[in-house]
Amino acid sequence: MSDSIAVTAHNLYKFFGRRPRDAVRRLENGESRDVVSRTGTPAVIDASFEVKKGEIFVVMGLSGSGKSTLIRMLNGLVEPTSGTVTIDGTVITGASPARVREVRRRSVSMVFQHFALLPHRTVLDNAAYSLEIQGVPAAERRERALAVVRRVGLDGWENKLPGELSGGMQQRVGLARALAADTDILLMDEAFSALDPLIRREMQEQLIELQAEYDKTIIFITHDLNEAMFIGDRIAVMRDGRIVQVGTPEEILTDPATDYVAQFVKDVDRARVLTAASVMEPVRALVSLTAGPRAALRVMRDLQTSAVFVVGEGRRYLGVVRDRDVMRLVRNSDPDLSSVIERPTSSVTGETALSELFEASVESALPVAVVDSRDRLLGVIPRVTLLGALGNVSTTTGEIDLVEPAPTISVEVITQTLLATAQQPQGALVTANEGSK
Fold it and tell me: What range(s) does the ABC transporter domain occupy (predicted)?
C-alpha cells in the first residue's frame, strides 16, 4: 500500500432543505443536528479524512448515518454544501460538469448495491461498457473485458444476459465492469448487502484478492460491522452525519472513541479481527545462539524461567532450549547450544488471526512465537495473553474492560483451555510482564 493520497475529503457538509449555507453556518457554530433538522436534513456534517492509494477504506454506519450521501459527494454525483473533495490531486468540488465527468472517467469507477447492469446486454458487453464510453476500440475492449470476466469467476458465462444470472453472479459482472475500466479508485456502495450470506462472504474474500492483485484504492460503504472489520484496512464510523472515529479494525475494536462505537463493536468476534501482532508481547527470555549455554542459564536464572528462546544471526528464530539440556552442556563443557535446540513448531506471522492461534496455544506449554516473513522473532503470545485478548481482559491489571467480550468466545471454551493448561508440563517462558514474578 502506497503512502500517497488518492482521495481527500475536507470539512464536507451536505444539507438538504431551505437555506443550506445558513444551516451549515449554524452547525459550525455549535447548534445541534436536531435543532438544525427543523428546516431540512443535515446528511453529512464536517466529514474529513484521507484515503491512501492501495487501501480498502470502509465507511460504516446505520441507515440514515450519511454514508451513501458521502460516497456520492466523492464521485461528484452530489455537490457538497460546504467543503472540498480531491481525487488524485484534482479538486472536483465546484468544478464544471465536464471536468467532473473527465475525473470520473479517468480515475473513479462505481459498483452499486443493485448491480445496475444493462439487461439487454450480455455479461461481456456489460463488462466492456465503461471501455466503450472511453472510446476504446471494439477488439481491445472485448479482450480486456474478457480477461476480467474470467478473473471474477464468470468464465463460460460471457454470452449470458443478466436475467439468466444469480444475484452473486450479477454482482461479479458489476465488479468486472469496474475493473475493466482500469481506474485507480473503486467506490462500492453497499455492494454486497443484497446477497445471501454465503455468497456475500465469498465476494468479500474475492474483493480482498482482487485488491491485492490490481492494487486498487477501494472506498466501501456498508452497514455491516463484521463486513467492515473483515475487508477494511481502515474504517470510518458514521453516526448522524458525523464521522465519530477513523482507525484500523483493531484500533476500533480495542480502543473505541465513544460509547456509541463501543456498543457497536461489543458483539464482534474478536478472535477473527485481532491479529498476533496486536497482542504479542516482547520477549525477555531470549538468547543468541553464539552466546552459549552459560549465557542461556544466566537468563533463565535472572528471569526465573525454565526455558529461553534462541535466535541466530539477524534475530532469526531457531527454537527454544530448556534448563535440563543446557545444564548437561555446561557439565560436559560443550559450547554448542544448537545441539539441544527444540525446533520451532508453533510460530506464526503477525497477520495471523487469533482464531488460528487457539489450537497451537492449547497444545503447547510454551508461548507462541511471532515471526516476520524472514523468520525473525518479533514477539511471543503467552496463553494468558491470548485468553485475555479473547475475553477483553487486561493481562497487566486483570480488569475487564467495559466493552463486553464477544459471545463467540464462550465460557466453556475458555474453561476447556484452562483445564488443558493445568494438565500440561510446566516450562512457560517469561515475557515482558512476568520477569518480577
Answer: 25-265
| pLDDT, the chain, mean | 84
Kindly state whether residue 437 falls inside one of the protein's structural domains.
Answer: no
Cell of 262: 463501543
Cβ count near 205 (within 10 Å):
12
- The residues facing 375 across adjacent strands are none
Nearest residue to 381 via CA among 334, 343, 429:
429
- Return d(Cα 371, Cα 348) in angstroms, integer: 6
416 — pLDDT class (breaks 50, 70, 90) = low
Order of strands across the sheet that contains 40-52: 40-52, 5-17, 82-87, 90-91
CB burial string 162-197: b at 16+ within 10 A, e below: beebeebbbbbbbbbbbbbbbbbbbbbbbbbebbee
The per-residue pLDDT for 424 is 45
Q: Phi and psi of 328, rounded to 5°?
A: -65, -40
Residue that is written with C-alpha cell 544471526 in the block: 313
Mean pLDDT to the nearest integer, 266-278 = 78
- 399 φ, ψ to 5°? -85, 145
pLDDT digits (tens, 9 = 90+) for 322-381: 999 999 999 999 999 999 998 766 788 888 888 788 777 776 778 889 998 888 999 898
Write down which residue in 213, 230, 265 finishes a domain. Answer: 265
Quote the DSSP letter at residue 255: S
Instruction: List the domain range (segments joined by +) for residue 32.
Output: 5-265
Give this prediction's pTM.
0.73
Mean pLDDT confidence for 399-421:
43
Question: What's the mean pLDDT in 14-41?
Answer: 93
Residue 106 located in a structural domain: yes
